[in-house]
Amino acid sequence: MRRNRGQAALALNIVLTIFVVGTLGMVTYEISRILLAREQLRNCLEMASLAGGAAMASSNATGSAAQNESKTVAMNLLQMNSVLGSSLHGNVTIGSSATALNPTPGKTEVYFEFVDPVTKQPVASNQQANVLRVHGAYAYPLFAGGFGAIGVSTYTFTAQAMSGMPALDLVILDNTSGSMDDQTPVTLIRRHWDQSSNDRIIYTQPGAGPGPGNQGTIAGMFCPPLTG
């Protein structure tokens, strides 16, 4: 009788050990995969935001046109990447807001947000903004159906990335004393901070300059002396 009880207890311990170890192994596997997927998603969003920010900084478009071009470039680069070995091409959708991201299992949903560099607040589509923030969410399907017994089959996590390209001022110092290149056509541009227009930098062409106007040659605009 004792021998039978000892064998039963040993068998029970083995079953419990297998169950506990197996459960811990599955949980560890899921957590490691989720952390890896989140890191990969964040890297994808960072590359997309950098590409969109660079496109916006190098574009001649302004307002909503510049923002749409930036989103197109960011979206194209995003779909060239992958999460957990699954390509994002055709598996990414654009959400309506950063708080409403709800992708389907195995899919990614993103939202592009343009931010004022001073206030750090989102701006309207017709305003200038040189900072792009990309929000993303990925629905990770849990292994073997996950914890289906309690109704949990996916785990959705979010990540975000932000990039900004500072405005660049190019200052050219020209020495016309030797009449070098003084016939180069130039255009005068005035860059200033406009407090009456949502506190932003604007660019205008002065109506009149020291020479014939705001466009012409270096010699005509800056009127070097005849002695050269």
What topology emerges from the helices and strands here?
Layout: H1 2-58, H2 63-78, E1 82-83, E2 86-87, E3 92-94, E4 108-115, E5 131-141, E6 154-164, E7 185-187, E8 190-194, E9 200-204, E10 215-217, H3 218-222
Parallel strand pairs: 3-4
Antiparallel strand pairs: 1-2, 4-5, 5-6, 7-10, 8-9
Could you please describe the fold and organization of this structure?
This protein has 228 residues and is an alpha+beta fold. It contains three helices and ten strands. The chain has helices at residues 2-58, 63-78, 218-222; strands at residues 82-83, 86-87, 92-94, 108-115, 131-141, 154-164, 185-187, 190-194, 200-204, 215-217. A four-stranded mixed β-sheet has the order 3-4-5-6. A two-stranded antiparallel ribbon has the order 1-2. Helix 1 (2-58) runs antiparallel to helix 2 (63-78). It starts with a helix and ends in a 6-residue tail after the last helix.
Main pleated-sheet profile: 4 strands, mixed
Low-confidence stretches are none
What is the tally of beta strands?
10
Number of helices: 3
Helix content: 25-40%
Structural category is: alpha+beta
Average pLDDT for all residues: 77
Distance between the termini: 119 Å
Shape: rod-shaped
Order of helices and strands: HHEEEEEEEEEEH
- Percentage of residues in strands: 15-25%
Spatial order of strands in the largest sheet: 3-4-5-6
Gyration radius over CA? 30 Å
